[in-house]
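Task: fold both queries, return C-alpha cells.
Query 1:
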Amino acid sequence: MYLTLNSVHKLFTHTKKETLQDISFTAEKGEFICIVGPSGCGKSTLLNLVAGLDAPTSGEIILDGKRVIGPGADRVVMFQEAALYPWLNVMQNVMFGLKAAGYQKERQKEIAEKYLKLVQLWHYRDYPIHQISGGMRQRTALARALALESKLLLMDEPFSALDKQTIHILRAELEQIWEKHKKTILYVTHSVEEAVYFADRVIVMAENPGRIKEIVPVTLSRPRNLEDENFIALRKRILSKVQLSAWKSAAEEFDQSEEDRT
C-alpha cells in the first residue's frame, strides 16, 4: 500500500476527549480518497497528521514505505484559503516553493510554466494576486502545489469559499488533471456531492470521538454526472450516514448538558 494509517489516535492535552480514535485505512498510489463527516469529527486534524504538521498520540502513518514524523517535500497541502504571497505575481508564487526546494532559476520557470498552462493561467502569469479572482487564486495555489511534484497531495476544502459556478469549473479541471497525472490525493470536504464526484473511495467519519464509520467505494464511470440517477442515489446514501452521525452527536451532547445541570 502507498499510504497506510495504522490505529492512529489523537488526544489534545487541553481536552478530555479524543479528537481521533483508531483511524486505520490504506490508499493505493494514484488513488483519489475523499473524507467527509460532520463538523468536529477531526477531518482537518487527520489531514494535518498525514501532512506531518502535528503528531499522532499513538499509531503510525507510513507513506511509500517511510514513517511520517514531520513535514516533508513528499507531501504538499492545499488549504481552503489560497495563502498566496500578495507581493509576488502569479508566476512568482508558483516558483516560490521550487526556489525553496533548491531548483535552479531556469528550471523553476520551466516547471511553473508547465503547471500554469495546466491550470489555464499562463496568460495571467504576470498579474498581481490582488488583480485576479478567487477562483484564479485557487488555480494558482493548485499550480504551486502540483509544481512540487510530491508523492501525496493533501487538500482541505479547497473550493468551499468560492461561488457555485466557479466550484463546478474547478472541480472539472481538477478531475481532468487527476485523470492525466494520477496524483495520489487525500481530499477533505464538507460536500458529499463533491466527494462522490471525485473519489475512488469515500471515508465517512463520525464524531465524539472522530472515527471511521464506513469506507464507501465509488464505482461510477468518469467523468461523473451530478444529475445521473446512480450519482444521486449514492450521494443520498452517504449523506444520510453523515447526517445520522451529526444527529447522534448532537443528542449525546444535549444529554450530557442535561446531566451537567442535574
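Query 1 returned. Query 2:
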Amino acid sequence: MPQRKKREDGNVELCRTINGRVRHFYGKTKREAQAKLDVAIIEAGTRRAAGDPFDEVAEAFWRDKEPKIKYGSRRGYRHKVEVAIGWFGDQGMREITGTDINRELSRMAAQGYSYKSIAGQKSVLSLIWQYWCAEMDGDANPCTLLKLPQGLPQQKRRAPTEEEIADVKAHPEGFGLCPAVMMYAGLRLGEVMALQKRDLAGGKISVTKAVVWHSNTPVLEPPKTASALRTVPILQPLADVLAGRLDDLADDDFIFGGAQPYTKSRYENAWRQYCISIGRAHDSGKRYKTGKKDKKGYPLYKEIYEADFTAHQLRHEFAGVLVECGISPVVAKELMGHADILTTQRWYAAAKSSAISAAAEILNQHFDAVKVS
C-alpha cells in the first residue's frame, strides 16, 4: 500500500516503490494523487514488458564506455551509437528483434557500406545490449546469433608498389627517416612520432608509447595494445640511414619535433612535401586561394597535391618482407606488435605477388626433378 501524508501546502502526497525506486505523487485530493500513482503503475508495467527505452540504454552505455576508449576511437564509436539511436529511438529493448536489426544492417549494405562499417555497427549494437543485460537487468541480446549480410564489399589497403618502395629507399634524407623507420622496423605512425633519442639504443628500438593527435595537438599515450609494448631490432638498412642523424639531439628529444612531437598538421605537410620531392604525389583537383591576383585582378589559385601512398602502407611493406623471408607468424606477431596472431596470419594469407611467384618457381623445380627421376 502507498504511504499517505498531508503536506504543509495542503496537498496530499502518496509514496510508492515502483520497479525498485521510490516515487512521489501529489494531488489536491487523495483521489487525484491516487490517479497519478495508478498511471505510473501502468506505465511501469508496460515498460517492464517492453524493456527500457533503447535511447536511454544507449546513452547510459556511452557514458560508461567513453572514458574507457582511446581518444582516436571515440568519434567512430559515438557515431555508431547515434546511428543506432536513429534506428530504434525510444523503442523498448525487448521490442527490438534480430529481424529489426538485420533489416537496418541490410539497408546499410544496400547503400554500399563496406563489410568493416557494417560489422562495426553490429558490434556496437551488441555492446549496448550486453550493457543492458549486465547493468540494467536486461535478459537477452538479439545480436548474438545475427549474421551479417552476404556479399559485402571489403576494402583492403594496398601494399606499396615495387617502384614506390624503390623511390623511398633511394631517398632517406630529410623526412625520409620517417618512412625508413616504418619500412625497416614496422612501427605504427603514432609509435614513430613518439620516438625519442633514448628509445634507440643498443641496436634496438624500445616501443613504449605513441602519439595520438587530439585534433592537432600531439598527446603521448600507451601503445595501441599491451602487445604493442615491444623491442624491435635496428636492422642494418635502418642503421645505415640513422648513421650520424641523431648526434645533435638530446636524449629526451623527439626524433620528429625536438622538444615536442610533431603536430598533426606539421606531420601531414612533411609527408606531403616528402612525397612531392620523390615524385610520388598527384594533383588532387582541389585548389586554394594564394591571396594574390593576376594582372586582370582575378584571384590566383594553387593546386593541392596528395601523396600517392601513406606512411602506414610502409608498415605493410615490412610485414610483406617478413612473409618473403619465411619469418614464423609467432615471431612476426611480436615484431609487428599485433594483439592477435590472427591479424598476423592474415598477412601471411595475403602474401605479396613476388613471394607467390618465388613459391611457384620452387614448386616447378620440384616437379621437374620428380619427372626426371
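Both queries returned. Flag for query 2: The beta strands are 3-6, 12-18, 21-27, 200-201, 204-207, 210-214, 217-221, 230-233, 281-293, 299-307.
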